[in-house]
Backbone:
């Protein structure tokens, strides 16, 4: 069977959280001898054979051929988890930077002037490329690919699996969101043949907030991160900030957005510092709330104990996790959350929000409500003060990593494909 998989990113091209999941899942699915996958991104390589059963393609290749445009000259406009406002800022910035150069075509010839228009441009490119192609199933990742999937379904009659990694309401902590994105999501939920949610948390969101019929929803939890080095005994001291090196370190890793709950991390930090004043709190990641969070650290009077690193690479993340004594994911609304698995794989005891999908499957960790900063602080203090507890939790959590194998969700998707074809 041939699966036409529609995505927005794929490592190493524009790789965010959803991109990592797409990479891991397609890699595992390509091991099935009866599965052939054509993975299509908005932009990327013109054509690349990843493995025997997995081909990576770019939906803009015919556009480039027709207009003789080389997108390698342009910075990418497509970033993981972008919303319309973030896209517009980047569009304006790159347009100003690039279009003054005489040897550059206008970026407007390639990209849409806003994220919504870019999503619909992508759908037209996909339809033009694949309406007469031979495939059996459309597997669409995230809302950005839904218009393309629906156009193909209308033209070819092929069934659609919509893989729901996150919703617009999750990005805003359950409040509001962009109305046009919500509209696209709702149409996708209504018209796709099968919806696969990454957690029961997302399933509940679809039923309660989008009015989706529960009978068309399947829950398939994510696996782990296959190429992540597992190291229970790491003692690497990689933080170059002199005040951080020799102290107990509590880590936050993720986007500085409302969804990720960075303010709750800082509020719990203030309470921890009342009892363990030498503790250092490290926050890695960037986002629209970064300046606000820096100001909050000052307001709380704890700025000398907080280290802001900004954006980070995968390699840097491994180093920070290896050095941290405790990792906290205080997300307000987290559909799944792979980041705690990175912490566990590198031997770091973890505290996670109950408002997350990963809390459904990761057992050997502390779970708290994101808003309960008192309880969060109690858990941090327990892990910092009691070596036996710290050691016991990291060992048990590390032993769980074998449960997070991408063969498990890949098998479930394979069965789902077969069921749809029947």
Residues:
């Amino acid at each position: 069977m041939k699966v036409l998989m529609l995505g927005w990113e794929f490592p190493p091209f524009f790789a965010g959280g959803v991109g990592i999941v797409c990479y891991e899942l397609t890699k595992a699915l390509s091991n099935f001898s009866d599965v052939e996958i054509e993975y299509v991104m908005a932009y990327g390589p013109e054509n690349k054979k990843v493995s025997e059963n997995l081909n990576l393609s770019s939906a803009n290749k015919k556009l480039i051929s027709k207009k003789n445009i080389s997108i390698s000259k342009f910075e990418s406009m497509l970033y993981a988890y972008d919303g319309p406002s973030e896209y517009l800022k980047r569009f304006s910035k790159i347009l100003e930077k690039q279009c003054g150069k005489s040897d550059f075509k206008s970026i407007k010839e390639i990209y849409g002037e806003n994220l919504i228009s870019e999503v619909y441009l992508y759908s037209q490119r996909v339809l033009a490329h694949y309406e007469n192609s031979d495939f059996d199933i459309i597997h669409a990742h995230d809302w950005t690919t839904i218009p393309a999937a629906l156009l193909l379904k209308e033209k070819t009659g092929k069934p659609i699996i919509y893989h729901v990694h996150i919703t617009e309401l999750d990005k805003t902590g359950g409040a509001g969101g962009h109305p046009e994105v919500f509209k696209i999501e709702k149409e996708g939920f209504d018209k796709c043949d099968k919806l696969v949610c990454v957690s029961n948390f997302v399933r509940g969101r679809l039923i309660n907030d989008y009015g989706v019929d529960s009978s068309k929803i399947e829950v398939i939890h994510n696996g782990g991160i296959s190429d992540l080095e597992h190291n229970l005994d790491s003692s690497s001291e990689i933080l170059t900030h002199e005040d951080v090196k020799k102290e107990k370190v509590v880590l936050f890793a993720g986007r500085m957005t409302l969804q990720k709950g960075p303010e709750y991390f800082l509020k719990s930090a203030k309470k921890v510092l009342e009892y363990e004043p030498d503790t250092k709190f490290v926050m890695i990641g960037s986002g629209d709330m970064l300046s606000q969070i820096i100001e909050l650290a000052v307001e709380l009077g704890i700025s000398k104990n907080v280290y802001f690193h900004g954006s980070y690479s995968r390699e840097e993340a491994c180093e920070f996790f290896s050095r941290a004594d405790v990792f906290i994911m205080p997300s307000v609304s987290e559909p799944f959350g792979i980041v705690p698995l990175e912490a566990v794989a590198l031997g770091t005891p973890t505290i996670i929000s109950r408002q997350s999908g990963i809390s459904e499957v990761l057992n050997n960790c502390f779970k708290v409500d994101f808003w309960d900063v008192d309880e969060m602080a109690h858990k941090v203090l327990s892990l910092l003060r009691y070596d036996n507890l710290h050691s016991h939790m990291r060992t048990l959590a590390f032993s769980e990593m074998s449960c997070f194998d991408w063969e498990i969700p890949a098998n479930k998707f394979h069965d789902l494909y077969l069921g749809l074809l029947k």
Q: What stands out?
A: The longest helix spans residues 115-130. Confidence is low (pLDDT under 50) at residues 62-76, 101-111, 234-245. The chain has two domains: 2-223+405-421, 249-403.
